[in-house]
Amino acid sequence: MDYVQWIELAAASASAAVLGSMLGLGGGVFLVPIFTLFFGISTKTAIAASAVAVVTNSVVGSQTHLRNGFVNLRLGMMLQVTTAIGALIGAFAGVWAPDKALRIIFGAVLIYSALAMVRKRQASYDTSHDPDPHELGASFKDGGKDVKYVPSAIRTGLGISGTAGVLSGMLGVGGGVIQVPAMNLFMMVPLKAAAGTSAFMVGITSVATAFVHYSDGNVDPTVVAPAMIGIFAGGKLGSTLTKRLKVADLLIIFVVIIAFLGVSMFLTGIGIHVPWQR
Asked: Rounded distance, CA 267 to CA 172, Å?
């Protein structure tokens, strides 16, 4: 790998980190498609690099999300139980799955996530007075206003988190692409709180994925190094932008980019070449 490509990988990783931290997705959901489509890196090598880099992005981005009050620690730690178990299962499955199958699954997950957010946009939830038997209620300031909420559908959230963990382990995306819509649409958690809580969770989840791929020899230092540097540079900026952007803007960014990358991955998985594929 020459210096030019190394710098390009770092720049692409920084961009992925900005988007991933801003949306609570960990960066991997953008990193894997970008590396495979635009740089010609094998899917498993990209997934392994993503899993390592997502840990960095989570650590950097979560600090700002915590200061802004977007992270619901009690909710995150509870959902993390099923997510971590699923991540281990998914990581072992991903190691053995063919590259084309991983691309098809990756693309399908991204397309579904984008469609789910379009079909059921965030409503003006007012759950602050709902029963809170698990003491998961929290609040944060948004535009000078106090936003209070109480997460609902806890069992559904735990089940979806397990599925998110499986996909996280298999695809190296941290699980945020499933977690954020799940918390927002099913558990009635405001989008910024869902993004912040997910950003906190994805780093823990990705540790298991990174370890499994490292054991299988998929971690390429020449890819991981620029990815980590770029992730570190972009992670803090993304989490800072979350506080400044409106929810509607976050939703548009989420849907457009996820849909584009999802369709591209799915097409290449079924053997159709896209113009931007290297």
From this structure: 20
* Cα separations in angstroms, 123 against 59, 87, 93, 246: 30, 30, 36, 14
Angle among Cα 161, 196, 198 to the nearest 5 degrees reads 20
pLDDT tens for each residue of 9-38: 999 888 887 877 676 666 677 888 889 888
Q: pLDDT per residue over 213-252, tens digit each? A: 888 888 899 998 898 888 777 877 776 777 677 767 777 8
Per DSSP, the three-state class of 30 is: helix
Exposure b/e, 204-242, CB count within 10 A at least 16 = b: bbbbbbbebbeeeebbbeebbbbbbbbbbbbbbbbbbbb
Whole-structure pTM value: 0.74
Q: What share of the chain is helix, strand, coil (3-state, %, to 5)?
A: 75, 5, 25
Q: Where along the chain do its domains lie? A: 3-127+153-269
